[in-house]
Design a protein that fits this description.
Layout: E1 6-11, H1 18-31, E2 36-40, H2 47-53, E3 57-58, E4 62-66, E5 69-73, H3 76-82, E6 86-89, H4 105-114, E7 118-124, H5 132-139, H6 149-153, E8 157-161, H7 165-173, H8 180-188, H9 193-221, E9 233-238, H10 244-257, E10 262-269, H11 279-291, E11 295-300, H12 304-314, E12 319-323, H13 338-345, E13 351-355, H14 376-399, H15 404-422, H16 424-442, H17 454-503, H18 508-519, E14 523-528, E15 537-543, E16 556-559, E17 564-569, H19 578-620, H20 622-640, H21 648-680, E18 688-690, H22 692-695, E19 708-711, E20 719-721, H23 723-740, E21 747-754, E22 757-763, H24 796-806, E23 810-815, E24 821-828, H25 838-846
Parallel strand pairs: 1-7, 1-8, 2-3, 2-6, 6-7, 9-10, 9-12, 10-11, 12-13, 19-21
Antiparallel strand pairs: 4-5, 14-15, 14-17, 16-17, 18-20, 21-22, 22-24, 23-24
Length: about 850
Amino acid sequence: MGRGKLRIYLGAAPGVGKTYAMLSEAHRRSERGTDCVVAFVEHHGRSRTETLLHGLEQVPRRELEHRGALFTELDLDAVLARAPRVALVDELAHTNVPGSRNAKRWQDVEELLAAGIDVISTVNIQHLESLGDVVESITGVRQQETVPDEVVRRADQIELVDMSPQALRRRMAHGNIYQPDKVDAALSNYFRPGNLTALRELALLWVADRVDEYLQQYRSEHRVSRIWGSRERIVVGLTGGPEGRTLIRRAARLAEKGAGGEVLAVYIARSDGLTSASPKELAVQRTLVEDLGGTFHHVLGDDIPAALLDFARGSNATQIVLGSSRRKTWQYVFGPGVGATVARESGPDLDVHIVTHEEVAKGRGLPVATGARLGRSRIAWGWLTGLGGPVVLTLLLNTVHLGLANDVLFYLALTVAAALLGGLYPALASAAVGSLLLNWFFTPPVNRITIADPRNILALAIFVGVALSVASVVDVAARRTHQAARLRAESEILSFLAGDVLRGETSLETLLERVRETFGMESAALLEREGDVAPWTCAGRAGTGPPVERPEDADVDMPVGDHMALALTGRVLPAEDRRVLAAFAAQAAVVLDRRRLREEADRARTLAEGNRIRTALLAAVSHDLRTPLAGIKAAVTSLRSDDVAWSEEDQAELLEGIEEGADRLDHLVGNLLDMSRLQTGTVTPLIREIDVDEVVPMALGGVPEGSVELDVPETLPMVAVDAGLLERAMANLIENAVKYSPAGRTVLVAASALADRVEVRVVDRGPGVPDDAKERIFEPFQRHGDAPRGAGVGLGLAVARGFAEAMAGTLNAEDTPGGGLTMVLTLRAAGTPAGASPVTTAERQAAR
């Protein structure tokens, strides 16, 4: 039995209806007679989803006990034993309860597929592993439950389930996702319009890239060279002239008119010296095209039109933008020009735009001879001139008798023409044939090989010598011109390469992609190993060719030092190209070293930050440590003094001052130690299941009696936390709220359950905090506004957030309706898998 097929409903955001779409597909398949079962689907009390489960066979779940609680999970063995044709498995990124066969649900799905069972599953875009950092920057939440991108990419079918942010928020407000009492919190946090719009864009772009991969794979497998205009890709041909800026802007406007338009600017460095590109101008044009969202490419090519068309077809472009020729009218005798040639040979799949500009017909220089690479057609014309030209000239001169001297000059001119067209060998052939024809037809006695007049012998000898000399000089000049032009092209490429690396703009993958494009290869990879006998590893790769595990397996192998090599597949490069390739290989090694140095610098920066925190700690707490110590010392000294007889009231007051100073000092030192532990990463929470109402009252010891109102129901679910860390975090939050609350206004501490998390809110009616400072107040040694030095060193909130995150929770600040600040502490409910973020779990449930 073959491998099963995987179909995934990819959600743009939680709550868009992935599970509903999956169940609808199951009903359609069941109606067609397909054996379809529900392996695992949660309806979470949603009536519409629960209704769709009716009529579908459900495989009983497996019950697992973890930390005293009972959980249900996908029974993989039962599904395999049932062996249905199609199995529905919800929540692909779900983390299984400890004790399950696999740690992740996607691993369960892999076993089902390997058994030949088709699987339909669901996943949200924010759970893709590669998008973790992006999603965190958008929503502020780090996704703990993730699925490798490759698992989703291997799916046989991916269907995007999308919904506009406004429609999704309306669904939320109508209670179709959360219960009504949880709607306000969800709308003001994760389901903000900006978050939903950004997630929607991520999903659309990811699916579009996946579709593009499918298309490229299909074209490669079926050897499709014809362009398919599925997406507007516009190639701009640049010559290095000032008109390039006009062409780039025009191409950008064309791209804006089509959905997903892309601009690719390409400069083809010729090896025949016909271009005179300004490196400065090309640098300006490259910056312009990148600012407009396009990409710049530098390619070597002897035939400009052919290279341009090959590049366009290789990138599946739909349009080419070229500028009107800068050649003058009389220069068209040398050929139709690049624009006309590209338009003639582009075929029906490529639209060619010829754009006018201010440089039209202002001249651009004439072609020059090249020698070593004259092209087949030019060499053929050279041989035709060298062999056929003397015969035709002989026929003409036999009709018009001009004298031997003039005849010799005509044959000499023909030899020079053969040298200019075809190089040395056609010229030698012309000289040989011409001398024989001169001797036979025009040197007395005619029609005989012998020569009667010795002066004619001298004339023929001079003719042959001059012809050979001219041919040699022309050939050497052509070769030197070709070498100079090639060196110039190489220097331009190396100049761009060095500029990229020096500016730090090129990643290793981008550099390897440029190597592949420049030399027209299928793939490029940088391989390295630790020693002479150690296995090779791939440090970076670009292209779609076969993987290379050893440099010897590649078509081109360029060593970089003793233990590194640049490997290319596609074709064998000529020896003269290896010089430029060696420069690319050296730069690739530099880029790799720079990347690793940057990683080391990041680690060093982390250490330096820790040292900075310690330095700031010592500088910031000098006054705050001395103040309570000075008060304690003064009170103790007064009590021990024999010169004054203290009354019982005075002694009690001094003892109370000592106790308050000691408490303040204990609190301050505790925060300092806690922050030091957080900075060094040594906080190891002892997680156990407790009730919130047992811990919160214990955090009120440091605030005046009656300053806090508690609303913590006993019916709340238990939370998985470290009791000591939770108490310290709550104590800091409550103390901070009481400190800034107006006189006579109590601080409210309320707790509520939301899905599988518990939220504790500390609400004050103080002056509040502006939006731009809500994150800054959680940084160490930060006092908001003009708080006095005695108000603390600014560590309380930083410690509270650090402890919350250590327990897999979150701590955020919100505005209190009517004025003030609300601290929202989110904790993981008991029974939630330890590797899952509370917010992630709630989003997973909302995704129904």
